[in-house]
Amino acid sequence: MAAKRRPGRNHLFVPGPTNIPDRVQRAMLVPSEDHRSVEFPELTKPLFEDTKKVFGSTDGTIFLFPASGTGIWESALTNTLARGDKVLASRFGQFSHLWIDMAKRLGLDVVVQEEAWGTGADPAKIEQALRDDKNHDIKAVMVVHNETATGVTSDIGAVRKAIDAAGHPALLFVDGVSSIGSLPFNATEWKVDCAIAGSQKGLMLPAGLGVICVSPKAIKAAEGSAGSNDRLARVYFDWEDHKKQNHLGYFPYTPSLPLLYGLREALACLFEEGLENVYHRHHVLGEATRQAVAAWGLKTCAKEPKWNSDTVTAIVVPEGVDAAKIIKHAFVRYNLALGAGLSEVAGKVFRIGHVGDLNELSLLGAIAGAEMSMIDNGINVTPGSGVAAASSYLRENPLSKS
Ligand SMILES: Cc1ncc(COP(=O)(O)O)c(C=O)c1O
């Protein structure tokens, strides 16, 4: 049976994949071409340099893989670490959990710091664990910058300070899948050794392009492990193969051409708006969403304002209500895609993604739809209250700084 036609645009408010700007979509409509031609580097060489800017990196190396964010997690771990190496990781949501699970399955010895869902990485605890590690057995600290499952942003600058205060040489790996390109990210200042991004969130592209920004220290760690018998196996994600080709503008295997053209256009969009404006816009849209949640009389999953994420808000539904019903109804009745609660918070929260290519009125559409779906499902929310609160805030707070 053919799917039911729903007139008008689907309102996509999951926290990735995000809306793709029309000009980026058009830029991806390209015929196939020879990725080993003499002209191909004209596309690729500037991409490596320009991509670095969204990571806030001046000294890093960018690698582009036909992969999603999960592949890039693997790339960070397998290029730098050896079997049995100890790593320190904070767990406070589904994505930090999955990355830890991967590290364990790869044969790493993961020291897990459990934090309540709705909070994030605790720099003081990280510092203590590193101070206690007198022999420097811990080789890397893994942190998810923006936990998409709970709408929590951790303070990576503070984590860096904690590592330095402990005088510990561990590498710092940061998952920026739902932050890079939307939230301020300073890979060089924070000395992030592997910063991990996927194409389908702040970069406003389809999924399928995995991006990593690697510090000189991590490049050295990868080179150092090359001859070791214990090094983790890596083939597809081996940086060495990419290094040999990338500086010439080529890849060791077939790249996804449409995604590379899309990346060029998406970066142009971000730079035309200005990264500072992009970050400010996400902050304003995040705050407007939170104003709506407060007006509904509901709470966010983020337990304190310091954890608030400006790319995704997880909204806790009242006891006895199944959040999945609100999500399903919003989709079927109002053509609005909201994010589901994952794992521990399944059925307890729904998420509004406010990441990527959006503005005031698109966000207000999502807030209106969420409100209507909640009311239809018997939640005692005053009609129009969220929209009124968010629109008042948005009228007073322009999206652009300049
Ligand atoms: C914070 C975070 N890390 C990692 C991932 C996994 O990325 P992917 O689904 O692109 O493999 C996601 C996906 O949503 C994410 O939000």
UniProtKB/TrEMBL annotation:
Substrate binds at R351. Residues 74-341 form the Aminotransferase class V domain. GO terms for molecular function: alanine-glyoxylate transaminase activity; L-serine-glyoxylate transaminase activity; L-serine-pyruvate transaminase activity. Pathway: One-carbon metabolism; formaldehyde assimilation via serine pathway. Its cofactor is pyridoxal 5'-phosphate. Keywords: Aminotransferase, Pyridoxal phosphate, Transferase. The keyword Transferase applies. InterPro entries: Aminotrans_V_dom (IPR000192), Aminotrans_V_PyrdxlP_BS (IPR020578), PyrdxlP-dep_Trfase (IPR015424), PyrdxlP-dep_Trfase_major (IPR015421), PyrdxlP-dep_Trfase_small (IPR015422), SP_NH2Trfase/AEP_transaminase (IPR024169). Belongs to the class-V pyridoxal-phosphate-dependent aminotransferase family. Its EC number is 2.6.1.45. Pfam families: Aminotran_5. GO terms for biological process: glycine biosynthetic process, by transamination of glyoxylate. It catalyses: glyoxylate + L-serine = 3-hydroxypyruvate + glycine. This is Serine--glyoxylate aminotransferase. The keyword Zinc does not apply. The modification N6-(pyridoxal phosphate)lysine is found at K201. It is an enzyme of class 2 (transferase). Gene3D superfamilies: Aspartate Aminotransferase, domain 1, Type I PLP-dependent aspartate aminotransferase-like (Major domain).
